[in-house]
Amino acid sequence: MKVLEKGRPQKGWSHTYKCTGSGNGGGGCGAKLLVEFNDLFKTHHYDYGGGHDVYITFLCAECGVLTDIDYSGPNSSSIPDHRRVS
What we know:
Blueprint: E1 14-18, E2 32-36, E3 41-46, E4 52-59, E5 66-69
Antiparallel strand pairs: 1-2, 3-4, 4-5
């Protein structure tokens, strides 16, 4: 591949993720996606004991399946502050 004309630099946060359906019953299509900050949103799970978990989630543009991002794992520093995600 040869660059014919340089493009604009990437602005803001973005990261590559695979559509897995993780945390949402699976069924992801496996598409490799460039997820940007505005693609992220919070989802919530409440259990019968009163517990409450918050997840950072994106919707696959290819198949429409939701995938949760693990922001407590080894790559957590690459994920934006979850308190700022809408």
